[in-house]
Amino acid sequence: MQGHSMLILCDSCGNAIPDQAAKEVLYQVDKLRYRLELCTGCLASEIKRHNGHRSVPGFRKRAAIVFTIDSPDRLPRPVESVPI
C-alpha cells in the first residue's frame, strides 16, 4: 500500500495515531492475554501505573510490552469516543 498512510485509534485515549507509532501492549490475566495498541503518551502512563513489565515478541509489531494484571477490569478504557 505504497503512498498511503494508515491511522489507528489508541485503545486507551482514542486519539488517531500513525500505525507505525502505535505500541503493542499485552495485558495478561492468568493464562489469557489481551492485545491493545497504545500511543506513546498512554504507554508512558501505563508504565508508571504498573510495578513491572517485560518485553516479548509482538504479534503485529517487532516487540510488545507485557503487564500482568489481576482482572480484566484493570484494562485501560477510552474515556469517551473521539470523532475521526
Could you write a compact summary of the structure shown?
The chain is mainly β and 84 residues long.
Description:
The structure is a single chain. The two termini are 21 Å apart. The strands form two sheets. The chain has a four-stranded mixed sheet with strand order 4-3-6-5. It is mostly beta strands and 84 residues long. It has a domain at 21-72. It contains one helix and six strands, in the order ββββαββ. β5 and β6 (63-68) form a beta hairpin. The mean pLDDT is 86.
Topology:
Elements: E1 7-9, E2 16-18, E3 23-29, E4 32-38, H1 40-49, E5 54-57, E6 63-68
Parallel strand pairs: 3-6
Antiparallel strand pairs: 1-2, 3-4, 5-6
Given as residue ranges, the uncertain stretches (5+ residues, pLDDT < 50) are none
**How far apart are the first and last residues' alpha carbons, in Å?**
21 Å
**Quaternary structure classification:** single chain
The amount of beta strand, in percent, is 35-45%
Topology, number of strands: 6
What proportion of the residues is helical, as a percent range?
10-25%
Task: Using brief descriptors, characterize the structure shown.
single chain; 84 residues; mainly beta; four-stranded mixed β-sheet; two-stranded antiparallel ribbon; 6 strands; globular
